[in-house]
Amino acid sequence: MRLILLGPPGAGKGTQCKHVVDKYGMKHMSSGDILRAERAAGSDLGKSAQGYMDSGKLVPDDVIIGMMIGAMKDATGGYVLDGFPRTVAQGEALDKALSAVGEKIDAIVNLQVPDEVIDARMTGRRSCPKCGQVYHILNMKPAVEGQCDNGCGELVQRADDTSEVVANRLKIYHEQTAAVVGYYEGTGSLIINVDANQAVDDVTASVLGELDKIDQAE
Ligand code: AP5
Predict the structure, then answer these.
(1) Strand pairing partners for 108?
(2) CATH classification of the domain holding 181
């Protein structure tokens, strides 16, 4: 399956992608994770993205499009895209690259969450810088406070998870990313809207229930 997971910052895209990948075995391709890995490696791409990410702005389209379309070439067994596309220009570039090789996206899962719940989700998030596992200080606690359950060591708080930067990310989501749903409606793509303002397990059950239908039809 080739999927896109859309939704505002903190909608639970990374959390749900993990369950999708565990069940169907495709590759999880998170633009945010790839950018953070580039930063950790000190690459030119990572250095150029740093200022945008820390202030909650979008990294320029040409940088992201080249990075993601290049990375997708290795994902021969399908993928779930997380955080990409985030602008209509990115969606158009993705469709163009896919149609050039005779492929298309099977479905877009759109996680819907009201703005009011986002700040608490983001400021309470803790992440493992080594394996990428995501936790929350109240509703998804690690077994030992501050430590990754996978034995990697200390959890960290992302620099862009402060209330101020989260407010900017949310603003940019409404200004630039929400329109991506309309773009895919216009192309006649299958869009699966999911209420993501439920307990994590209930969101997972809704997402997997819908994806099972696609999987069985293939
Ligand atoms: P990115 O890393 O993609 O950030 P994001 O889209 O803002 O999304 P997040 O990863 O913050 O949240 P998520 O939806 O995955 O939620 P999660 O599952 O972690 O991008 C970072 C930056 O990189 C951008 O700001 C931009 O600068 C740049 N960038 C990336 N892609 C780009 C692109 N395509 N174009 C341009 N720039 C780009 O969950 C969040 C928290 O909530 C966790 O603590 C979790 O435990 C908790 N939680 C999850 N689900 C639930 C639930 N149902 N109930 C309660 N709590 C929940």
Answers:
(1) 4, 191
(2) 3.40.50.300
Distance of CA 107 from the midpoint of ligand 1 (Å): 20
Q: CA of 38: how far to CAs of 41, 46, 49, 50, in Å?
A: 5, 4, 9, 10
**Active-site residue set:** 13, 86, 125, 158, 169
Digitized pLDDT (tens) for each residue of the chain, 218 residues in all = 999 999 999 999 999 999 999 999 999 999 999 999 999 999 999 999 999 999 999 999 999 999 999 999 888 889 999 999 999 999 999 999 999 999 999 999 999 999 999 999 999 999 998 888 999 999 899 999 999 999 999 999 999 999 999 999 999 999 999 999 999 999 999 999 999 999 999 999 999 999 999 888 87
Cα–Cα distances (Å) from 146 to 130, 153, 156, in that order, read 14, 8, 8
Note down the domain range covering 170.
2-113+162-217
Ligand 1 near 9 CB (within 6 A) = yes
User: Token pair for residue 48?
Assistant: 């150029």
The domain total for the chain is 1
Ligand 1 pocket mutation, candidates 4, 6, 16, 35, criterion most atoms within 8 A of CB: 35
Q: Does 131 map to a domain? A: no
Q: Evaluate: CB of 91 within 6 angstroms of ligand 1.
A: no
In a domain, 71, yes or no: yes
29 lines ligand 1 (CB under 6 A): no
With contact defined as beta carbons under 8 Å apart, do 79 and 33 qualify? no
Does the residue 33 lie in any domain?
A: yes
Residue whose Cα lies nearest atom 27 of ligand 1: it is: 53
